[in-house]
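hey so i finally got around to running the thing on that chain from the lab meeting. sorry it took forever, my laptop kept dying and i had to restart like 3 times. anyway pasting the input first so we r on the same page abt which one it is
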Amino acid sequence: MTKSMFKRSWLSISRKLSKTVILAIVMFVMANLVLASMAIKNAVRESTKFAKESLGSTVYLTPDMDKIRAEAHQGGGNGNMMMKVERPTIYVDMVEGIAESNYLKDFTYGINATAKEGNFEFVPQGVFYVSL
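ok and heres what got predicted. didnt touch it at all, straight out
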């Protein structure tokens, strides 16, 4: 039975040569497209991985001053009065707690200070720079 099946398939291929060639070309093109898409997908994955490793990320940890100002305007009187807005401090122990993460490569902690006229008073305003 298998001998006659192979004989009939060979006769079909040899008698309809143009149809067989066209079918072979179509299958060849489809196989190449599938392989090319797999190669492109692999290249994109590798380049994304390389970009994440080489470029890293920078994160700035600062207080949300827009939210603080909005809360001060809601709680304050009329528009003629000056409102005192206190900027929250980012303390060193907060920064060190974040810096212990395994996802951080290194960090830099800087403090900006402002002073009032007359009775000079230190007002810390921390900024936290992180590289991932």
